[in-house]
Amino acid sequence: MTQAAQDTVETAMGRWRLDGADPAAILQHLPKMDRVMLAIRLENFMHERLGTVDSVTVEGGRIQITGPEQAANLPADAFASVVLDISTIMRDKLYPRLEFLDAAGERIFSVTGLEGAAPMETALDGLARTTLPANPPAPRDETAEPAEIDPADPGLALLEKLQESAQPVTITAEFSGLTQSWQGTIEKIVPMGGYINVMTKGFHLHLAGGSVAGWETDANGHRALDADGAPTGLLVVPS
């Protein structure tokens, strides 16, 4: 029996709204969930931190999440509900996910368990759940080819320049009061599948090719701008 098959035998598969605690209280269970991926997903990029969580504190209306590879600061009132999804299997492994939804029902933050379903299920044991219908599969265009990344893409050009310099940077995602940051040197950039992918220990950035029209640069760093000149939520600050 494969590991994923073993996990599905031991774990109920499906989607549930968690009704037994508010979102901030649910996040306070993170230190008991082993390695997790915390993700802010915006229209044109995803900012992901991977590792264990040491502490979650709630103070002054803010939720501070810290760990060796974790650094997130979230407004406690940003989330209207939390959904537990146990349905994703990749490379023969089960990845449970907590989806934190805003008032419009949009996922703006997520926590994915990286060590199977058991740590997350155990941490959430006892919370009331309401069963939800499964998400329909996303439509796929089998004929579409991922766009090639233009070597002159402003997003790629800045990240490659910083990689070549080996200069430490802070890369931050900002959205509706949510912030998540990573500090370090850019070790690997992989343009693939229409995305510029920064891959380092404990951090992934997936930036859509062509989504950065330019950068607003000042003493506070480089702020990504879209084609209309509006900030995208991505901030890169050389140390």
UniProtKB/TrEMBL annotation:
Chain intervals for the UniProt region annotation (Disordered): 129-151
SUPFAM superfamilies reported for this sequence: Heme iron utilization protein-like
Gene Ontology annotations of biological process type: iron ion transport
Ranges where the Haemin-degrading HemS/ChuX domain occurs: 13-111
UniProt name for this protein: Heme degradation protein
Gene source species: Roseovarius indicus
